[in-house]
C-alpha cells in the first residue's frame, strides 16, 4: 500500500466515523456518544475508533466542527445570492427553519440542541459551541447593520436587541419543531422574522 493511499484511507475512515457519530449525537446528544456504540455500528474495534481522535472529547469536538460546517453550508451559504441586509437575513432564517424541519432524521437543529446540552458544562466543547454561536450572531448583526445603512431599517435600530429577538424566534421554533412537533411552528417562525425585519 502506498503512503498516499494509506493517508487517503485514514482520512476516509475518520470521516466515516464522524458522520456516524453525528447521526448518533443527533438523537443521543454529544455526551451520550459512546465509543462502544460507534465501534459496533461501524464494525470496528474501540481502539480503531478512538485511535483517530485520541480521546472522546476530541471526537466530540470533531463532530461539532462537522455540524458547524454543515450548518454553514446549509444556512448562510444558501443566502449568499440574496441582497445584503433584510433580504439576505430573511433567506438565511428561512433556510435555518427549513434545516430544523429536515434535521438529519430527528428534527430540530443539532447546534441548538448541543448549545442547550452544554450551556452549563465548562470545557472545550462548550467553548467551541460559544465560538460557533458568536460567529452566527456576528453574521446576523452585520446584515442588520447593512440594512440600517441601506435605509431598510430605522437609523436608531438597536442592532444587538434585534439580533437577540431574531435568534429567540429561531430557538422557539426549534423547540416547537423538535419537542412539541408543532406543524405550525415553521410558519409562525417565518411570520415573526418577517415582522421583526419589516420597517415600521
Keyphrases for this structure?
about 200 residues; mainly alpha; 9 helices; about 0% strand; elongated
Assembly level = single chain
Give the biggest beta sheet. none
Amino-to-carboxy terminus distance: 67 Å
Q: How many alpha or pi helices? A: 9
> Looking at the structure, what is the overall shape?
elongated
User: Into which percentage range does the β-strand content fall?
Assistant: under 5%
Structural class: mainly alpha
Radius of gyration: 19 Å
Q: Tell me the series of helices and strands, N- to C-terminal.
A: HHHHHHHHH
Kindly state the mean pLDDT as a whole number?
A: 93
Please report the total strand number as a whole number: 0
Please describe what this structure looks like.
With 200 residues, the chain is mainly α. Helices cover 71% and strands 0% of the residues. The protein has nine helices and no strands. The protein has helices spanning 3-28, 35-42, 46-50, 56-74, 86-102, 110-118, 124-149, 159-178, 185-196. Helix 1 crosses helix 4 (56-74) and helix 5 (86-102) runs parallel beside helix 8. The longest helix has 26 residues, at 3-28. It is elongated. The termini are far apart. The model has no long low-confidence stretch (mean pLDDT 93).
Secondary-structure blueprint:
Elements: H1 3-28, H2 35-42, H3 46-50, H4 56-74, H5 86-102, H6 110-118, H7 124-149, H8 159-178, H9 185-196
Helix pairs in contact: 1-4, 4-7, 5-8, 5-9, 6-7, 7-8, 8-9
Amino acid at each position: 500500500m502506498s503512503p498516499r493511499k494509506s493517508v487517503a484511507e485514514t482520512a476516509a475512515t475518520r470521516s466515516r466515523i464522524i458522520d456516524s457519530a453525528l447521526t448518533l449525537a443527533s438523537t443521543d446528544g454529544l455526551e451520550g456518544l459512546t465509543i462502544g456504540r460507534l465501534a459496533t455500528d461501524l464494525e470496528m474495534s474501540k481502539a480503531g475508533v478512538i485511535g483517530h481522535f485520541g480521546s472522546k472529547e476530541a471526537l466530540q469536538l470533531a463532530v461539532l466542527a462537522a455540524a458547524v460546517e454543515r450548518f454553514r453550508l446549509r444556512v448562510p451559504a444558501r443566502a449568499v445570492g440574496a441582497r445584503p441586509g433584510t433580504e439576505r437575513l430573511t433567506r438565511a432564517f428561512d433556510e435555518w427553519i427549513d434545516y430544523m424541519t429536515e434535521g438529519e432524521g430527528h428534527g430540530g437543529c443539532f447546534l441548538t440542541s448541543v448549545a442547550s446540552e452544554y450551556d452549563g458544562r465548562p470545557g472545550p466543547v462548550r467553548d467551541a459551541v460559544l465560538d460557533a454561536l458568536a460567529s452566527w450572531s456576528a453574521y446576523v448583526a452585520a446584515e442588520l447593520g447593512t440594512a440600517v445603512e441601506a435605509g431598510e431599517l430605522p437609523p436608531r435600530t438597536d442592532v444587538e436587541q434585534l439580533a437577540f429577538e431574531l435568534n429567540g424566534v429561531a430557538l422557539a421554533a426549534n423547540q416547537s419543531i423538535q419537542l412539541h412537533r408543532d406543524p405550525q411552528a415553521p410558519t409562525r417562525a417565518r411570520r415573526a422574522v418577517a415582522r421583526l425585519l419589516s420597517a415600521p
